[in-house]
């Protein structure tokens, strides 16, 4: 606890121990001191004369959040405090409930489907589940089914024997085999084409796979955890996804709330990312300015945690001062038009990509053709703008 917190001292403390909770005692009605302290990363402020009840509540809350993070991180196998590289960072009850569910499921054999919008942390949660499961010592292998062309997906998942097709110059085990004894995370499961869904179902029923060109089944002990941002129930109803596979894959569906529905998490994560990336990317940066904090609070985060992470990384690079501003974050308010050429171009790019994706119903090849770019360029654009097919 610091009296009349010195922002530089707070920033230095957090730099050394990013998970520290700094509580600052400010002179009565001194908004400027409080704002500077919070901007430098203070956890909370308390005014003189100190109200013991209020202080006790602040300290208790700090301990609670710290304990939740430590538990989440330990379950993820990191054994570090929250803020460690592998930890899921959250203080929102909506998300801590999700973490508790995932930790509980991890110890069992039930199949899990993580459903949530892009960038909400589905892969991180799958990793958390793996690390909290008895398979933690085995491999965690992740594959994004939407990013791999249909023709290659079978070989990626099931592997192939030498000579199975032109170019198969050596035998290659697939991802399911690579994850034997561990967990295979199938992201965007809704993008697996129907013929491959049959093969996946067979694996889940028989725990055996056949490589392309293979002559015998191979027994493989791999746990599948999958995720999607699509409405699989609707896909089942429309005949685009096999119902029998759905029930095999999704005994439990865990819905991950969007960042906008996790009060307080955007700021917590923003500070976490500043503490994580600034020392490497721009050590002069020590924290967030008051206008950046307000902008982070006000933003809707349609791209969720990934958007936040990318904005913070970009801001760390762009920042001229010790504190990141809302301009560094490139967060324009409400319906304001973008003023910089870069922002205007980004807005135009996003609009064109979204419209093309809507016209082709998410078909990557057709979208790339419509936009007049190559598929790899389109993938790069989708990644950098946090867009999904
Ligand atoms: N709660 C969190 N704490 C810390 N980092 C997080 C958290 N949630 C997400 N991240 C980070 O945000 C980025 C995006 O998360 P992740 O890839 O898990 O999202 P996703 O839902 O799988 O996205 P997509 O559906 O687009 O594949 C990653 O760098 C991840 O480490």
Write the layout of secondary structure elements.
Blueprint (H helix, E strand, L loop, with lengths): L1 E2 L3 H10 L6 E4 L4 H9 L4 E4 L4 H24 L17 H14 L5 E4 L6 H10 L8 E5 L5 H9 E2 L11 E2 L1 H4 L4 E5 L6 H13 L1 E2 L8 E2 L3 E6 L3 H6 L5 H7 L2 E4 L9 H17 L5 E2 L1 H9 L5 H15 L4 E2 L1 H4 L11 H19 L4 H8 L3 H10 L5
Parallel strand pairs: 1-2, 2-3, 4-11, 4-12, 5-8, 8-11, 13-14
Antiparallel strand pairs: 6-7, 9-10
Helix pairs in contact: 4-5, 8-10, 11-13, 15-16, 16-17
The structure holds adenosine-5'-triphosphate.
Give a written overview of the molecule:
By secondary structure, the protein is an alpha/beta fold. It folds into 3 domains: 1-83, Rossmann fold (3-Layer(aba) Sandwich); 93-255, Rossmann fold, CATH 3.40.50; 341-384, Arc Repressor Mutant, subunit A (Orthogonal Bundle). Helices cover 48% and strands 12% of the residues. Strands 5-8-11-4-12 form a 5-stranded parallel sheet. A 3-stranded parallel sheet has the order 1-2-3, sandwiched between helices. A two-stranded antiparallel sheet has the order 6-7. Helix 8 crosses helix 10 (243-249). Residues 75-86 have low confidence and may be disordered. Adenosine-5'-triphosphate binds next to helix 5 and helix 13.
């Amino acid at each position: 606890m610091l009296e009349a917190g010195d922002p530089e001292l707070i920033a230095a403390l957090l730099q050394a121990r990013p998970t520290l909770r700094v509580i600052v005692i400010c002179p009565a009605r001194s908004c400027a001191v409080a704002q500077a302290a919070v901007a430098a990363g203070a956890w909370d402020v308390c005014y003189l004369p100190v109200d013991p009840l209020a202080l006790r509540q602040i300290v208790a809350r700090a301990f609670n959040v710290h304990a939740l993070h430590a538990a989440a991180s330990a379950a993820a196998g990191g054994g570090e405090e929250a803020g460690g590289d592998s930890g899921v960072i959250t203080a929102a009850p909506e998300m801590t409930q999700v973490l508790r569910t995932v930790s509980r499921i991890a110890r069992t054999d039930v199949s899990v489907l993580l459903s949530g919008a892009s960038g909400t942390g589905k892969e991180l949660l799958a990793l958390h589940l793996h690390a909290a499961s008895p398979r933690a010592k085995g491999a965690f292998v992740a594959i994004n089914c939407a990013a791999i062309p249909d023709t290659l997906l079978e070989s990626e998942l099931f592997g192939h024997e030498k000579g199975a097709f032109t170019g198969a110059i050596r035998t290659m085990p697939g991802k399911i085999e690579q994850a034997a004894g561990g967990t295979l995370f199938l992201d965007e499961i809704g993008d697996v084409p129907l013929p491959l869904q049959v093969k996946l179902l067979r694996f889940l029923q028989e725990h055996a796979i056949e490589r392309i060109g293979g002559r015998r089944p191979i027994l493989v002990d791999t746990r599948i955890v999958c995720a999607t941002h699509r409405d699989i129930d609707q896909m089942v109803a429309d005949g685009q996804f096999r119902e029998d596979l759905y029930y095999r894959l999704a005994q439990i569906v865990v819905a991950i709330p969007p960042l906008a529905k996790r009060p307080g998490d955007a700021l917590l994560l923003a500070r976490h990312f500043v503490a994580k990336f600034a020392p490497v990317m721009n050590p002069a940066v020590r924290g967030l300015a008051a206008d950046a904090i307000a902008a982070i609070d006000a933003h809707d985060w349609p791209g969720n945690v990934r958007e936040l992470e990318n904005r913070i990384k970009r801001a760390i690079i762009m920042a001229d001062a010790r504190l990141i501003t809302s301009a560094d974050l490139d967060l324009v308010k409400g319906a304001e038009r973008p003023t910089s050429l870069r922002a205007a171009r980004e807005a135009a790019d996003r609009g064109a990509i979204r419209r093309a994706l809507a016209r082709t119903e998410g078909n990557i090849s057709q979208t790339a053709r419509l936009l007049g770019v190559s598929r790899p360029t389109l993938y790069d654009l989708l990644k950098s703008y946090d867009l999904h097919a």
